[in-house]
Structures are given as structure tokens and as C-alpha cells.
Design goal:
408 residues; alpha+beta; Cytochrome p450; two-stranded antiparallel sheet; 48% helix
Amino acid sequence: MTTPTPGGSLRAELEGSAFRADPHAVLRRLTESSAAHRCEPAGAPPQLLVTGYEVAREVLTDPRVSKRSERAGLEPGWLMSGVRDEVGVDYMLTVDPPEHTRLRKVVARAFTPQRVEALRPRTREIAARLLDDVLTQETPELVDGFAARVPVSVICELLGVPLGDRDRFRWASEQVVAPVAGSDREEAYVWMSGYLVELIASKRAEPGADLLSALADDTGDDRLTDPELVGMAFLLLIAGYETTANLISSVLLGLARRPGLLKALRDDPGLVPTAVEEFLRLDGPVMTATERFATEDMRVGAVPVRRGDMLLVSLAAANRDPSRFAEPDTFRLDRPAGGHLAFGHGVHHCLGAPLARMEAEVAITAFARRVESLDLAVAEADLEWAPGLLMHGVRRLPVSAASTGNSA
């Protein structure tokens, strides 16, 4: 049985600095005590944090659980931060079947494995150019200089965002996923929405070879409306940047912590996909799946849930559940692939997972080839982590790196 947590004390613990620095210690304790944990923070719907692997899979596929708060009897637009989103737009992440099924089908028609694979050579060029720049620095900073710039360049090329707009887009993406609403996030939402309306209009007038042009030019009976196309571009831009940046940063930090692993990947690049998969499980880029709501009274594990309760699935906890993964806190290259929930589960499983994997594999292969030794240039305790429950990743990663002398 779970122990009731008064008020918002559990939520406060999950948003504190100690949790950001080492979330797994807190989540491990929670997972060992129960598969789900109830808290009732002030000013927000009652919440249930799901930490067990099997229960997480069940919640992510339960038709009684909705992405739409109004289906649970609440006002629309509740966010994990406990505030309401007044300026967002609907997209795949915020709707249920059958609306979600139609939207995903249309995007999958254009966002094909072939389109992702066609980006691999360009991704190699981007990674090589960025490494040329960052590795010349006395103390390379690998988040801003490399891990964040690879995916923002790739996703903007995929969607046909002009080069001159990419820094502004990156700023807006980071504000949108910020844990606390404020003027910057609202400004970012408004700017991004207006920008995408104009970009889509330009794609309709002069289509290119990019994904956004393909979606805008779709003539199928189930094609996206203009508002749906804006929402879809919104989701792809933000999800395609922030999550992949965190993934690449996580792997780079893992290499700094494990000197022997960097050499192993340099000696055998064929191990890189396995390493990326294990880091997805061990330190995935998304801490908690976006909010869901119970549309009727039910039970999650042993915990009763009332209609209107917000359900938060901790992907980080589920991916280290000892009942599912042996030695869950240990990085193992020999661990069988698959089974983790880093990209979610069920109908909302991340459509961009193949793109994220490709980018991470290309970036880490290029990095391992170019870097012979890697150490943190700051103490672990001084690393700054993303705040909030949604994203997991370091904000800066200053290192000491010795080059192999190999060019791209």
C-alpha cells in the first residue's frame, strides 16, 4: 500500500534541487515502496505518480485515461506544473483516438523511415562541422556547442525552417517546455504559432522537399487542416529538438563518467546503437510522460483513482524498475535491447523515435572517432540540471577533451 502524502510535499520533493541532481535515488525509494503514489498539491487536480514498470504500461494504454482534461470533468488545458495553458494549440500529444489516430496516420504517411534515413548523410556533415568548432575550445561546452545544435539543425532542415530563424526557434522551444508558465513561455507560444502560420503559407506557395511541404501539399481526404498543421509542426519542432538534445547530452555525460566506454565505441562503432539504447533506459531525455486524466473512478495498482485525477507516469522510474530490469542502475552493453519506455508506450509512443535514434547514433559515432579522452571540467555536484518533472538533462556540460587527430 502507498503511504498518503499530505498536501504537495511529494510534488515539492520531486521539484527540488536534490531531485534534479539525482532523481533516481528518490524514484528508487518510491518504486520500492509502491507502484503508484498519490499527492494533492494546492491549486491543481489531485495527482498520482506512477513509478512501477508494469503499472506504467497499463496506464499508458488504458482507454479510461485521456489526454483531454475536459473528458475528466476538468477545465481544458491543465499542465504538469499545476497551471493552465491558455495559449497552446491542439496536436497529437493532446488528443485521444479517433482524432489522434487520424492525425498520426497523416503524419506517418509523410514522416517515413526513408525520409529519416535520407537525413543521415546531412546529419554526419552537421555533427562534423560542430565538432570542428567545439573541440578547438580550451574547455569545450558540449550542450550548447554540440548536443543541442545537432538536433535543432536536423529538425529545422526536416521541416524546412530557414537558417536565419533557428536560434529564435531554439529559444522558443526551450521556453515552451519550461516547468513554470510565465511571460517568456506565453511569448514563445505566441511567436511560434504565428511563425508557423507564416511558414506553412510559404510552403503552400512554394513547396520544397521538406516534411512540412509534404504535409501542406497532402491532398488526401484526411489531410490536416491549417490549425492541425500548425499544431503538428509545433509538436515536431519542439519534440524533435529538446528531447534529442537531452539524449545526446546524456550519452556524452555517460562517456565522461566511463572512460573505457568511449574507447570501446571508438574501436567498434557498431556498439553505438546498443549504447544509445542503454542510455535511453538508464537516463532517458523525458523524465515523466505528459499528463493524462482519469475519466472514471478506477484503480492504478493498489491505489484508488477518482475521475478527474491527473496521472503522471514516471518513465525514469519505470526504466529502472528492478522487477523488469536486472541491475537497473548499472550501464550494461550486453543488456538485451528493447523493453524500455523512454519513448513512451501505446498510441502516443513517440513518432520521432527513429529520428532521435539516428541523430544520437550519428553524433556519438562522430564524437567517439574524434575524442580520445574525456573528463568533466566541473565537479558532478556543480552540473546544472533541467528543472521540473518533464525533461531530464544537463543544461551545460563543460569538459576536458583530447582529440584523436582524426578528421571527420
